[in-house]
Predict the 3D structure of the following.
Amino acid sequence: MKLSGVFLENMGKRHSVIVGMTRSGKSYLTKHVLQQLQEQGYHTVFFDPKHDDDYADLGVICYTPMQVYAKLLSKCPKIIYRPNPEKNKRQEELTRVINLTFEVSKTAGYKRIKRVFAIDEVQLMVKKGGNDGIERLWTVGAGQGILGLAITQRIQLLNETIWSQSENKIL
């Protein structure tokens, strides 16, 4: 699947949301968006709470925030993070990985790396009242070259900040 230049260009410049019901093609679209952004030199981090093998070819698989941090420091352009299956730990780990991504991006030699941080099943990551990592990513990330891509089935459970700060909304 080859995506149009304007569509892909916008995905690489602004936060995005992909919403659709089960089996509607969210995973398929996300995979192709990330692959084509990777081809354009973007570094991607894919947060994979379902440990979905359909995404395994999108990068090096990590299972701890420190493994992700090591890959970020080595300038690995393609990372998949598979968090702990426990809900509270998964949410904490997401915030930790986002914060580590910001820390690396402030370091000399890493500042110009464009990153897309894709979060599958984002509604599972948001505690009532929000998630600090998600809030940080969607409010200040774009200004630091870190874009968010949220994937969800349930628009009604989508974090308000994600929705309001995402210019690209694919339904």
User: Anything to note?
Assistant: The two ends are 18 Å apart (CA to CA).
